[in-house]
Amino acid sequence: TKDFIxxxxxxxxxxxxxxxAALRANPLKDSRQDLLADLIQLHKDKPEFNELYLRKMAxxxxxxxHETMASTLTSTLAMVGTHPQVQRRVADExxxxxxxxxxxxxxxxxxxxxxxxxxxxxxxxxxxALPRKAPAGGLQVDQRWFPPNTTVGCNPVALHRNSSxxxxxxxxxxxxxxxxxxxxxxxRLRAMDRYNLGWGGGSRSCPGRNLxxxxxxxxxxxxxxHFDVEVTEMPPEEEQRAYFLSMxxxxxxxxxxAGEDSAKTDLASD
Length: 270
Description:
Blueprint: H1 2-22, H2 35-45, H3 51-82, H4 84-95, H5 110-122, E1 132-133, E2 139-141, E3 144-146, E4 151-152, H6 156-159, H7 163-166, H8 185-194, H9 209-226, E5 227-233, E6 251-257, E7 265-269
Antiparallel strand pairs: 1-4, 2-3, 5-6, 6-7
Helix pairs in contact: 1-3, 2-3, 3-5, 3-9, 4-9
């Protein structure tokens, strides 16, 4: 968490320096073609997008795209590595498919997709309350009334472990809950999807969702096609800390060549 905060502060300083340099009366030539260059050009074309907006957008994109992918992959591999039956089923599904990594074949690997989705449910990347404003007519939630324009929000970590939505085993890792094998599955799945804030919700859902899903799917299937995952260290959940993001830290895994006992690669999530 501290490393992420320090990195964010450093990015903020770098962004501020570059924005100020680009908006000087006689700026130095800068040939970089990136998001910040586009934002600076947006300000020049439409001054109402001021310097503060540029800085906020640049820093937000850093936070939204840098650690989130690592967090999702860490939680998925950690859950696979600590649940042998899940790993066997995922590995069998991936290795029995001739070409598992093309995203076009994702529909053939329902259990693998459910495993990724379940890891994201238990360990959603965002831990903040995703604030919104109560509408003009106010908001009634159960027995509580919120006046118009009140800031309200819902923490995805808490919501995703709500037993009234995800069942009495909401705190447990079970990819099968997304497969619809139980009675009344269709209505239950709709309810779980409705309250699944892994990608945010409504009009503010993550705009990079489809790209992120593609990358996660390809990395997970690519790794598990050739390796078995062994978790060698998994800190207790009560030791995990959250800031803006919620990430599994301190996880150490070992990748073993499929069907072999010798270690191939060690990776750590700090």
